[in-house]
Batch of 2 targets.
Target 1
Amino acid sequence: MVNVQALLGSKRVILVRMRRAFTLIELLVVIAIIAILAAILFPVFAQAKEAAKRTNCLNNLKQIGTGMMLYMGDSDGVYPCWATTSPPVNGGTSNEIPPDLQLMPYMKNDQVWKCPSDNLSRTDKNSYRFWDGNYKVKGLLRSYAYVGTINTVQGRGLDPNTGVFYYDSSLRDVVGRQEGAIDLPADTVAWIEQWPDGLRDQWMGVVDGSGFINCDTWKLAGRNVPSQGLTDNAPPGCTNLYRRRPTPGHFGKGHYVFGDGHIGAKPWGVVRRDDFWIFKATKPIETFNP
């Protein structure tokens, strides 16, 4: 004889179990919601990560600016030159001390020379000559460059009125400017951030890639390629290089150390304005466009 009550009881169990399970539609809805949330949150997390890198990059430049000012305190207010000549040490093979190593006696950490956002690949370090052989062993990357003479409209090419170091024809050598020879140190760029794709020679302890000179303004963050206006136009002699992609930078801005040691994040338009006005030692009365 069939136990009706037992049979009905088992059916109720089955029905209960069926009610507790997810249907295919419900699973698809949950997956869709998770995908939407991921699409919203991942860019937020990426921006937060980049913001942290930007802060670290600025902190690096702050230490470089402080080291520069301490150096100047010991050199009667003279900025470092691009490369001081001295016999190599620790098995080095170059007679030139790049500006980063000139500042290292005034800095505690040589890790600050690389921006955390700099993922640029470099050529083999063995291709370059190091003044201090220890830095060839360390293989530290450098994301920043020291500002010298650049091309401008006012200079009709290479402008001797730009940079915190320049070529002195009377001495036949590259020298650092006196701080008093710069009209507005707080408005004059001394160090810049540069790590554009294709630039592969920036190793700490090597003169190559340590100077920001000639047409190197193509490397500055925020410039549009292809050109979208007058501010993207190349100065005389630099047209071909301005076809290359600049440093990615941080949220459309590049980082800079100024002649008084302070730091700042600037968009390309501000840096390019008035014929690279913030790179000029003696600020011209003439106004240029852009």
Note: Residues 38-279 form one domain.
Target 2
Amino acid sequence: MNIIIAILIFSFIIIFHEFGHFIVAKMCDVRVNEFMVGLGPRLFGIKGKETDFSVHLLPFGGACVMEGEESDSDDDRSFQKKTVWQRFMIVFAGPLFNFILAFVLAVVMMIGIGYAPAKIEKVIDNSAAFDAGLKADDEIVKLNNYNVHFYDEIRYYTLFHPGEKINVTYVRDGKKDTVKVTPKYDKETKRYMLGVAGGTKVAKGNPIQVVSHACYQVKELIYVTLMSLKMLFTGGLSVNDMSGPVGIVKVIGDSYDQTITYGVFAVVMQMIYMVVLLSANLGVMNLLPIPALDGGRLVLYIWEMITRKKPSEKFEMTLNYAGFVILMALMVLVMGNDIRKLIM
């Protein structure tokens, strides 16, 4: 059951991503030859007016195959015949649709279960927060220059800024104040902690608050993804801390097992959260300026806009091939790490 749910989630996110490419390509009058769900050997398909909608054996992946995308074509409706702005928007649409999907489902979450405000429920004795004079019922609204809307953001911020002095802005009895707090190192968790507890009480807002907090939810997930990447490159995290499809399937399975005892509604909300998380993550990762990813192609289009010169087809293919090889090598490494974690 866990594997089936994970496959459905992956497939849904990827289909929505590729649908972004597809719909904008159609808007720009680009011929789409095939819309693939999955990779590997073809299982079956339906031929549309000009597009072949097909399902393939391997459930992880998909593609929107456009005329003239990877090679020259004499067709006036080929991808390469379009203006650089049209090509840019077609490629950008994939990650954009991931963010749209994350936002829409975040709205569903806000309506269904609400959110946990960044309100302190308990201050640990002799902690950094205790020394700074923070109290229960204080609501934290800013950590340095980072605006806080959810309790989880307190934990994330201290994780990504270990040991740093933090200007904590909070609201107490309707009045806003700021104190300087230096998180203390906790030997048990091996992390720097503020020394506050909370996140167990949820709030539900009016329609405007639902929409705004859905935006904040997507912003939080983008922030977590970007800061995790930063820590990966600066040594705060290692490749061993990364997870690929195997690891994500396990996380989804564990989430399902932990929530099933609370009923179907709890499972549905948790799975929606997983889609929001993974979709926002995929949107960010695809925008990285790495060849073979959407972000790498966007960099070439920006260069073309600036120089008004289109890179040669050979150069672009070589760059994308090199990026593809690097990504495959990284995927094998991460997948091997996931399998090792399962065995150990």
Note: The radius of gyration is 23 Å.
